[in-house]
Each structure stands twice: as C-alpha cells, then as structure tokens.
Write a structure and sequence with these properties.
two-stranded antiparallel sheet; 7 helices; Four Helix Bundle (Hemerythrin (Met), subunit A); 179 residues; 6% strand; 2 strands; mainly alpha
Length: 179
C-alpha cells in the first residue's frame, strides 16, 4: 500500500469514527456534554471542539501548499482559531455539521494529492509562532493521530456517563487480502 493510500484509509477511518462519535455524543444531555470532567479540554464538548481546532489549524497550513490550495480553499477561508481550547461552536449540532463537512473535504483533498506532493517538506509556524519545516506526509499522519488521541479521551469521558462507544479499531475497514 502506498503512503498516499494509507492516508486515504486513515481519512475514511477518521470519517467513520467521527460519525459514530457524534451519534454517541448526541445521547448526552447538553449539561452532561459540557460538564467539566477534568479532561485536557474539560468536557466531551470541549474535546470535540479541540479536535476541530486542531484540524482547522493544520489544514490551513496545508492549504498553503500549491497542491492543496484549490481543494482546501474552504478551510483557507476560515478564521484561524485563537487558541487550542477555542470553542468554535456553541452546540453539538452545529459542530457536527462542520465535522461532517471537514471530514468530506479531508477525503477529497487526499484523493487529489500525489505521492510526489506528500514527499515534499512544508514550512509552517506553530501556535507560538516558531518556524518548522517537516515532511508533508508525516504532518498529515500527525493530523489523524491527533484525532485518534482525543477521540479516545472522548470515548473514556462518555463511558463515565454510561455510553459504550463500541468498536474503534481500523481493522474494521481494512480490505481482506485475496490469495
């Protein structure tokens, strides 16, 4: 499997898990959704917002690469979050609508990249303004691993409210080998 094919698989997995995550989160009352559970980003809702913040920050950086300007133009038009704990949305429904849109853009964007594109290095500044230059494919991997990390936190928080999220393994969508 090529690196790009692996990234597309991660985007499809990401989309599936986010759909399930938002369906599970919808079972919570607004009070429970926003209850401070002493997590990094306090609550289920705060953590879901943080995942979106991370995606927007990274995708805005990626949108500056020539291979991604057209496919990530929507992301480029968004305001950059002020902090990693910015609450971009006031309610789960609005956040869920944007989550679905971003996940679709991620898949379309990756399907439009080439192996040559993702082998390049890109320059960016972190939230503190420090400059870095790293390989594009590794940074895309980071975007997905960031989501996995925080989705795990959300599923743990939801279990405190009696919600069993269920299966989270990517193996579910990996194709079978044909002998």
């Amino acid at each position: 499997m090529s690196v790009l094919s692996q990234l597309v698989l991660l985007a499809e997995y990401n989309q599936l898990m986010n759909q399930r995550l938002f369906a599970a989160a919808a079972k919570l009352s607004d009070e429970d959704l926003k209850k401070d559970c002493s997590a990094f980003f306090k609550s289920v809702f705060g953590t879901l917002n943080h995942i979106m913040v991370g995606d927007i920050v990274w995708l805005k950086r990626f949108s500056e690469h020539p291979s991604s300007q057209a496919s990530l133009s929507y992301i480029a038009s968004l305001e950059k979050p002020h902090s990693l704990s910015s609450n971009l949305f006031a309610d789960l429904e609005s956040l869920g609508i944007e989550r679905k849109r971003i996940d679709e853009i991620l898949i379309q964007w990756l399907n439009g990249l080439s192996e040559v594109d993702i082998k390049e290095c890109i320059s960016y500044k972190n939230m503190a303004g420090q400059p870095f230059k790293k390989q594009y494919s590794s940074l895309i991997n980071h975007l997905f691993l960031h989501q996995v990390h925080h989705r795990g936190q959300v599923t743990a928080l939801m279990s405190q409210f009696g919600i069993d999220f269920g299966e989270t393994d990517i193996i579910e969508i990996i194709d079978e080998c044909i002998a």
